[in-house]
Amino acid sequence: VQVGNNLGVLTSLSRYKMSKPQQNRNGLMSVKFAANAKAKLPMSLVVIFLMLFLLRSSEQNIQIFNDNAVVAVAVAEKVVESKDDIEGESESCLRPRRNRNVEVKSLLRPPFINLGMPKMGSTSLHSYFDCGGYKSIHWKCGKRYCGECIEDAIQAGSSPLSTSKCTKNFGSYAQIDRGPEHLVQVNYLNEIVRGVPNATFILTFRNMTKWYMSMSNWWSDSKEVPFKSTKDNTMRGRFEVANITGLPVGVGRNVSEFSHFYCEYVKRVRKEVAKYPGRHELIEIDIEDPTVGRQMEEAFGVKRTCWGHSNTGNHNDTVPADELQ
């Protein structure tokens, strides 16, 4: 199209003469044509001018084509990368892997043990399994806290669920920690995975910024929650001073630090469970995925209508912008 347009100039050039060249603002010479029937431009000069004009236009078009090609390749690579993430071909430590629900459904057996974090769907899991007819517990095993009795059993050299308060035929352990101060699934991950034969482990995910804000806005005035270890009684503040494996004291002041902590923890969980093929199964779910009810039904056989969000805060508190990094 450009060449055709350029060739069309030839007829016009033969009818006009050139005025004095003038310098334009880009430093290039422009030619102003003035209609003058008495003066005629020699054909040889017209041909030379036309050749130079076509050459420069062609160079510009080639450069534009090359630039567009580079952009097209970059976009194509990004599309492939996104497609891999969606289809589960590439692993992310902050997104759940695709569960082999159909293949493993017959293998999923209780106890179902949640290895996820506080404020990451534990109450919803508890309600779900309870609705499905399983005897489910949520951070309290009878009169004792699950995190404490699990920790006591491990330190005594016994299996994690060996104490009588922790082994009363529970089908679901929706939360085994007692908050950041007794985050047993992190601090004793190896002992739990190795010491509970045939368990089905659950690992929950959610948007890291939303998780951080949820912990920053959540507190309790219950006497059962230990606040003496920190001046900041929010869940986030308790994480910061609890000295957790992978999250030392003073770390956990922004989204980036929490994202790194959870990413490394997810890698540990996947690696540890993979050591026992056929003995354990790991089910990963995004609690904010609108299809999570269907995924849970496919994995556990409990109807999807049992799934719902629980223990959601209604705080209007805001988190400082410098923490949302």
Description:
With 325 residues, the chain is α/β, with parallel strands linked by helices. 42% of the residues lie in helices and 11% in strands. The protein contains 12 helices and 11 strands. It has helices spanning 2-7, 9-13, 43-87, 101-104, 122-131, 146-155, 184-187, 189-195, 208-217, 235-241, 255-273, 292-300; strands at 16-18, 22-23, 29-30, 33-35, 112-114, 136-138, 140-141, 144-145, 172-175, 200-205, 281-286. The strands form 4 sheets. It has a 5-stranded parallel sheet with strand order 6-9-5-10-11, with helices on both faces. The chain has a two-stranded antiparallel sheet with strand order 1-4. The radius of gyration is 33 Å and the shape is elongated. The two termini are 49 Å apart. Residues 1-39, 64-90, 227-231 and 312-325 have low confidence and may be disordered.
Please outline the helices and strands:
Elements: H1 2-7, H2 9-13, E1 16-18, E2 22-23, E3 29-30, E4 33-35, H3 43-87, H4 101-104, E5 112-114, H5 122-131, E6 136-138, E7 140-141, E8 144-145, H6 146-155, E9 172-175, H7 184-187, H8 189-195, E10 200-205, H9 208-217, H10 235-241, H11 255-273, E11 281-286, H12 292-300
Low-confidence stretches: 1-39, 64-90, 227-231, 312-325
Structural class: alpha/beta
Helix percentage: 40-55%
Shape: elongated
- Write down the Rg: 33 Å
Mean pLDDT: 74
Oligomer kind = single chain
Strand percent estimate: 5-15%
Spell out the key features of this protein.
single chain; 325 residues; alpha/beta; five-stranded parallel beta sheet; two-stranded antiparallel ribbon; 12 helices; disordered N terminus
